[in-house]
Amino acid sequence: MSGENDQPKKPSDRRIKTRHAGNAAALVVRDDDIMRTGINGDLYDVSATGVGLTLEAEVNLTEQVRITLNNPVQRIQKETRGTVRHVSQHQDGTWRVGIELATRLTPLEVNLLKMGIEPSSREDSSEWI
Predict the structure, then answer these.
(1) CA-based nearest residue to 29, from 82, 72, 70
(2) CATH assignment of 25-127, among 1.10.940.10, 3.90.226.10, 2.40.10.220, 3.50.50.60
(3) 69-99: burial string, b at 16+ Cβ within 10 Å, e else
(4) What's the DSSP call for residue 66?
(5) What pTM, to 2 d.p., does this model score?
(6) Among residues 44, 51, 29, which one has the least CA distance to residue 105?
(7) Is the per-residue pLDDT at 4 higher than 60?
(8) For residue 113, which of 29, 27, 48 has the smallest C-alpha distance?
């Protein structure tokens, strides 16, 4: 009675962690936007005092915004306010925006939000600072 079930099963290695990258997102609402529709974007970089975003539309320098940061995998959502400090356009038509936050993020919030950023996009994050 030999068959497939005779093979010894390998124990699962719980130390191997899978990473769900690229899930951190943001919604930016301008203070002067009457409809409060907001601009969808992806989180590019995050620190205690600021965030880097890739947005679908342009925002102006020194513009006051309300930001909702979200990473559904880590189950964190943070709403904060900030001031636009850097704006540049990519070749694909998206905008890279650096926002200085009015209140600091906690170290736990920073780490949970960073878990949703793709590692390849984090390499040249110092460009917007």
Answers:
(1) 82
(2) 2.40.10.220
(3) bbbeebebebebebebeebeeeeeebbbbbb
(4) E
(5) 0.73
(6) 51
(7) no
(8) 48
